[in-house]
Amino acid sequence: MAETHPSTAGHDAELMAPHEVADLFRVSPATITRWARVGLLPSTRTPGGHRRFERSCVVEHLQRLGREGDDDRARAALEH
Q1: 24 vs 33: CA distance, rounded Å
Q2: What is the pTM of this model?
Q3: Could you give the 3-state DSSP secondary structure of residue 15?
Q4: Residue 32 and residue 36: Cα distance in Å, rounded?
Q5: What string of DSSP letters covers 43-76?
Q6: How far apart are CA 70 and CA 5, in angstroms?
Q7: Does 35 reside within a domain?
Q8: Is residue 53 a contact partner of residue 41, using CB atoms and an 8 Å limit?
């Protein structure tokens, strides 16, 4: 599974709450939680059981989606 225990997460990593990640992607926090559950976005858990996401992983995923979206737009433009 993509989740790591807080003790194995990088101590210098900036962590984000699901609602912060959701704001960046313009989706609901439930969508972010679902992405974490299926392994699309790695997460860690706080001692209280709340999910947190490393900012670097979030930015990487956002960039990857942007590139894939650009590729889709480019293909669609070529087909017309």
Answers
A1: 14
A2: 0.69
A3: strand
A4: 6
A5: -EE-TTS-EEEEHHHHHHHHHHHHHHHHHHHHHH
A6: 34
A7: yes
A8: yes
CATH of residue 66's domain is 1.10.1660.10
The number of domains in the chain is 1
Match 């960046």 to its residue by tokens: 24
CA distance readout (Å), 6 to 10, 48, 80 = 8, 11, 49
H/E stretch holding 27 reads none
Q: Are 58 and 21 spatial neighbours (Cβ–Cβ below 8 Å)?
A: yes
Q: What is the pLDDT of residue 52?
A: 98
Position 1, amino acid: M
Q: How many angstroms from the chain centroid is the CA of residue 16? A: 10
Top-confidence range, 1-10, 41-50, 65-74: 41-50
Placement of tokens 């559950």 in the chain: 37
Whether 44 has a pLDDT exceeding 90, the answer reads yes
